[in-house]
Design a protein that fits this description.
Elements: H1 14-24, H2 42-52, E1 55-58, H3 66-76, E2 80-83, H4 94-101, E3 105-106, H5 110-123, H6 128-140, H7 144-157, H8 162-174, H9 178-191, H10 196-208, H11 212-224, H12 230-242, H13 246-259, H14 264-276, H15 280-293
Parallel strand pairs: 1-2, 2-3
Length: about 300
């Protein structure tokens, strides 16, 4: 942040801030508690962001912009820099086009990033983290088989990395292999029993195996650990909806859409819950939003 870690900025991002501090990630700042955002804080904030990343992708910005400051910091830190080309003449394309002329790598799709991750694996084939990163990217790109293979390789190289077990479990769960997912989440929790996200994952596997009490217990454990990410709202909402607890489902999906206004599935399930509660006008509004987001 360009402020103290207890000062979310801008104010409209407070819900995202709560989701992150609730267990979905970490909030980092070089500034003391209660420090207010100042313009001169943000170049340092951008330097921290680029330092935490393996690579920086410049999507849009002028030559004199925060994005260009981040690119400069990334280059000074030896990070990979990519740029997305834009429309010639559009002011937001000035920055990406400038660094493309200076040698930044052009990127237009997730496949381009996968190519870079493939290169990282080739350069360091014994580094488990490279396989985990590529596995996550492959899963998000719709290649579960490749993702699963990468997680297996990571586990062969370093079997005590909980994120690799959890990553493989997540892929198994997406494929409907809930017993395999459950076994891998349990291994991840043995290695890191304080990770709320792992309890959410294991709870979703229990739900897929039609064990609602075990699922509910895991979701509650995640909240006790301080996890309040959107995935917990989604999975808890699904569980409540399947049990026809429509008021509870509505509360969960309402929290989800507040944290992630662009989540079409969240709006759809919120609409279904409202419909079952006979709030038809509100249901139509929610379902219209879902269709708008994902026609």
């Amino acid at each position: 942040l360009g402020s103290g870690v207890n000062v979310p900025y801008p104010a409209e991002n407070a819900a995202v801030y709560r989701a992150i501090t609730g267990g979905a990630g970490a909030v980092i700042s070089e500034y003391p508690l209660d420090a207010q955002p100042q313009a001169f804080h943000f170049p340092n904030r951008n330097r921290v962001i680029s330092g935490l990343c393996a690579a920086v992708v410049f999507v849009e910005g002028k030559v004199k912009s925060g994005g260009m400051i981040t690119v400069t910091a990334a280059l000074n830190q030896g990070r990979e820099v990519f740029a997305v080309p834009g429309c010639v003449g559009h002011s937001g394309a000035e920055g990406p086009h400038t660094i493309l002329r200076e040698g930044a790598r052009l990127i237009t799709s997730a496949a381009d990033l996968l190519e870079d991750l493939n290169r990282a694996v080739a350069l360091a084939p014994r580094e488990a983290a490279n396989y985990i990163n590529r596995g996550i990217a492959r899963d998000l790109s719709g290649d579960p088989e490749g993702a699963f293979a990468d997680m297996n390789t990571a586990l062969r190289l370093q079997p005590n990395v909980p994120d690799a077990w959890a990553g493989r479990a997540r892929i198994s769960s997406h494929r409907g292999n809930y017993e395999d997912a459950l076994r891998d989440y349990q291994r991840a929790l043995q290695l890191n029993p304080s990770n709320g996200a792992y309890y959410v994952g294991r709870g979703s596997a229990f739900a897929g195996m039609n064990q609602p009490q075990a699922a509910g217990a895991d979701f509650e454990k995640a909240r006790q650990l301080g996890f309040s990410g959107a995935e917990l709202d989604y999975q808890q909402g699904l569980l409540a909806y399947r049990q026809q607890q429509f008021q509870a489902a509505l509360a969960d999906f309402t929290r989800l859409t507040e944290k992630q206004p662009g989540n079409a599935a969240g709006w759809a399930y919120k609409g279904f819950a409202l419909y079952n509660l006979q709030r038809y006008t509100d249901a139509i509004q929610s379902l219209n939003e879902a269709v708008r987001l994902d026609p």
